[in-house]
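cron nightly-structures :: item 1 of 1
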Amino acid sequence: MKHTAKPGQQDYLVLGCKVWNRRAFDETLRRLPGRWTYIGSPEDLSLDVIERIFPRYIFSLHWSWKVPQEVIERFECVCFHMTDVPYGQGGSPLQNLIVRGHRETKLTALRMTAEFDAGPVYMKEPLSLEGGAEEIYCRASRLSAEMIQRIIQREPKPVPQRGERVTFKRRKPEESEIKNAESLEELHDLIRMLDAEGYPRAFLHHAGFRFEFSRSALYDGRIVADVKVTREHETSGQGIGKKIRNQKGRAK
């Protein structure tokens, strides 16, 4: 937990569990007016801790654990979701957007509620889905910091979501296996959308080995990518953006 203190200023709490979240906090958020606290571990998050800070807002950039309901009810908690809600509520938004052919989305700042991704919206901003997953997550984290700055300055009232609700299902690790790609473009999208820390890379099995792909570059008629090769018994499954949450912090 990191706290920046200047007497007589408003308090804010930021939750984040990824390297790019901490970078956004250190490079942007902690420099904004107010007293800023960063929590990167669930062991540091409790109602007692939060009540001592007593933040005006709790901003969740990317949080892989449950935010207690009592916290959501007591404090104004803001999370960031990588779709134009109510389209794309649910899990694995980045991956689900790319497999559906989207090249751009909206990053939505919404208030946490008991129902996942269903809270009222503070604002939305365009977000490019070009590049690898980690590059996109870094881009979303920087954009989240810019949106946070506007939220603390204007204190907007969130408005209910409108439109047709489309719910995404959280992807499973086995869906990362390369099986039936119909084009180089489709294969490139599969590799890049999984290319981030904590996500199982696109993979295939052959002759007792597992091949995992990253850093995909699509050229005219070919893909150039990095590959890690391991024997089958040396690998283990990983969850895609696995979360136990009351609401998340996705960018997504």
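cron nightly-structures :: done
The CA atoms of residues 107 and 143 lie 8 Å apart.
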